[in-house]
Amino acid sequence: MLLAACSGSDGGGARPAPSTPAVASTVPGGPTTTATYTPRRVVTSVELDQTAAKLKHRAAALGLGDPKVEVGGDGTLTVTAVGGTKEKFTALAAQGQLGFRPVVALAPSGVTLPTGPGAAEAVTQGAVPAALAGQFNALDCADAAQRGALTADPGAEVLACSPQKPSLWEKLVLAPVVVDGQNLTSAKAVNDEQNGAGWQIQLTFDPTGTAAFADITGKLAPQPTPTNEFAIVLDGRVLSHPAVRSSIPGGTAVISGSFTKDEAQQLAAQMSDRLAVGLTLAGTTAPS
C-alpha cells in the first residue's frame, strides 16, 4: 500500500572501491564469501568505480560483515564479505530501477477462468489497449517463464504480473513510468510498530520527484478502479499497486506489503543505491 507520509578499464590489476559513507550494521560471524560480477554492457572505469562504491554501501546495508569491493583489470567486480549467502549476493547485484506507473487495466491470473466469447473481458477491469489485447489475454502469470519474458520499457505501456497469494496472480497493463527512481533521495526500511503495519520502505524524493509525485497522485485520485491505482515497480517486479485517494505532496511516501525485515532492508538498499549498469553474478566461493 502506498501511504502519504508527514567497458573499458584504465589499468591492470585490482583497485579498491572509493570510500563510501559508513552504514551502521551488526557484523555477522561465519566464513568469508567472495562473489564475482560481470557488467552486462561495456562500461567506463568511472562507472565501475561508482558501481563498486554503491555495492559496498549496499553490502553493509544488507548486513554483510566487513565488505570489500575490488575492480578488476578485466572489468569485473569482486565483493568479499562475512556472513553472506548466495541469495544476498544475488540481491546485491540487482540494478534497483524503480518506477511508478499508473494502472491501465487488470485481471485475475493463475486461476481457472470462464472461457468463451467475451469471457476475458468480463473479468477485466479497465480498458486493455487494442495493441496489447492478444498478449494480455494469453498471459498466465502463474507461469514463471512467461513472467520472466515480460519487458519493462519505461517509456511504453507494458504487461506485468502482481502476486496476490500463493498460486494467485493479477496481470496488469501499466502506463509508462511517470515518477522515476532517479528522483529518489533516500529509501529506508522502517518497522511501524505503533500502527502495527510491520516493515515498510520509507521514500523521500528530490524536488523534481516531489512535484511529479504530487501531480500524478492528484490526477489518479478521482479516477475509477483500477485507473486510480499506482504500480510500484522495481526491476520489472510489481511490489504493489495501491489505490490513490488524494494528492500526496511533501515529497515522502511509504511502501508496505507484508515485508519481512530482510525483505524491507533488501528493497531499501536496492532503491537507495541504484546501479548505472546491470550486473551478472558470475559465481561465489567460500572456504571449505
Automatic annotation (TrEMBL):
Cross-referenced Gene3D superfamilies: 3.30.1360.200, 3.30.70.3400
Keywords: Cell membrane, Membrane, Protein transport, Translocation, Transmembrane, Transmembrane helix, Transport
Record's GO cellular component terms: plasma membrane
Entry-linked Pfam families: SecDF_P1_head
InterPro entries, A to Z: SecD/SecF_arch_bac, SecDF_P1_head
GO terms for biological process, alphabetical: protein transport
Ranges of biased composition (kind: Low complexity): 26-36
Entry keyword annotation includes Transport: yes
Region (Disordered): 1-36
Limits of the SecDF P1 head subdomain domain: 172-271
Protein name: SecDF P1 head subdomain domain-containing protein
Organism: Streptomyces rubellomurinus (strain ATCC 31215)
